[in-house]
UniProtKB/TrEMBL annotation:
Keywords: Iron, Iron-sulfur, Metal-binding, S-adenosyl-L-methionine. InterPro entries: 4Fe4S-binding_SPASM_dom, Aldolase_TIM, Radical_SAM_PqqE_MftC-like, rSAM, rSAM_sf. The keyword Lipid metabolism does not apply. The keyword Metal-binding applies. Gene3D superfamilies: Aldolase class I. This is MoaA/NifB/PqqE/SkfB family radical SAM enzyme. CDD domains: Radical_SAM, SPASM. Pfam families: Radical_SAM (PF04055), SPASM (PF13186).
Length: 343
């Protein structure tokens, strides 16, 4: 980034979220990405060019590979390897999967091999919204639970050291499972893996769920029940992800108080859609920095549109956001931005 000196007021890329495809084999209550049947995406060469450029590669420390369903891509391990190799300062990367495809485990194992061969820690989260048929119902796939568990147990059987792989399950709360989230917690405890809980968020981008709010909409009663459930996590704090401090903050946020958990995406992260749009996150379609299908990443990152968003995102969006994305990620960009003109 020699051409662009690091300015804490606007930040620099430390974390990237990359959906490697928007195609998905599930039909979840809280997400309709699969309905889009979106096949258009940036070429792997273009992705390697973006992630390998100094404006990204010099400072990027973590990448989240997600979807859609990433294991739909036969070349997933190869793509992961190529982008990880493009970023010399990368410390870790993560993968989200529903684990339901027949080849899911083999492709996940390929990604694990990439992490181990390069000395990077992999954080792997498999979606699990309930135990038994409840998971099938929420995911809209018959036999989803059995298929997911098969993948989880196959990964566990690899016996990869915890210093190299963190395996966990992630659940999204809906009115269908709000009284059964404890079953997911118990599942994680019995298998000695991590567990994460997410409160559903309506968005007009990414998850494409604005037209199915009725399937996951949270009324005041559901909010109160979720807040009460979070109180039960404390005895299992060593396996809860993100840290318990986030869930305490989330309880307050859901009660209408201002979010206190800092977010790396305000000044230090970006969400790159398969079609090239660059956003800080997927909270709203209003949060659009620009497109790398039309401009270079540097032009997008340092452009006027991004600068305007950085100045207003905390007040307009972050202060009420329930998302746990990369909470706890250490960075000098988590502090208040410097005041213009201060010295």
């Amino acid at each position: 980034m020699d051409q662009y000196p690091r300015d804490p007021a606007i930040g620099w890329p430390e974390v990237a979220v990359l959906p490697v495809t928007y195609l998905c084999n599930a039909h979840c209550d809280m997400c309709a990405l699969g309905d889009l049947n979106q096949r258009e995406r940036l070429s792997d060469d273009r992705l390697a060019e973006i992630f390998g450029h100094a404006s990204v590669a010099d400072t990027l420390r973590a990448i989240n590979f997600t979807g859609g369903e990433p294991t739909l891509r036969k070349d997933l391990p190869q793509l992961v390897a190529r982008l990880v190799d493009s970023c010399p300062n990368l410390e870790s990367f993560s993968l989200n999967s529903n684990g339901m495809l027949r080849p899911s485990f083999e492709r996940i194992r390929g990604v694990i091999d990439v992490a181990r061969s390069r000395g990077k820690k992999l954080y792997l989260f498999i979606s699990l919204d309930g135990v038994g048929r409840l998971h099938d119902e929420i995911r809209g796939v018959r036999g989803a639970f059995e298929k997911t568990v098969r993948t989880i147990d196959a990964v566990r059987a690899l016996n990869v050291p915890a210093t190299q792989l963190s395996l966990g399950v992630s659940a999204t709360a809906t009115y269908k499972n709000i009284d059964h989230l404890g079953d997911v917690l118990q599942f994680a405890v019995e298998r000695d893996i991590a567990v994460s809980f997410t409160f559903p968020m309506e968005t007009d981008v990414y998850m494409n769920n604005a037209d199915r709010v009725g399937r996951f909409h949270a009324d005041r009663e559901m909010v109160d029940r979720f807040v009460a459930f979070l109180d039960t996590l404390e005895p299992h704090a060593d396996r809860i992800s993100p840290p318990m401090s986030f869930y305490r903050s989330l309880q307050a946020t859901l009660r209408g108080e201002r979010r206190t958990a800092p977010c790396i995406f305000q000044r230090g992260g970006f969400f790159l859609e398969p079609t090239g749009e660059v956003r800080p996150c997927w909270r709203s379609s209003d949060l659009l920095f620009g497109s790398v299908a039309e401009n270079t990443f540097e032009e997008v990152w340092f452009g006027d549109q991004r600068r305007r968003i950085v100045q207003t995102i905390e007040e307009d969006f972050c202060s009420s956001c329930p998302s746990p994305c990369y909470v706890g990620f250490p960075s000098p960009l988590l502090g208040p931005p410097p005041v213009v003109g201060s010295g």
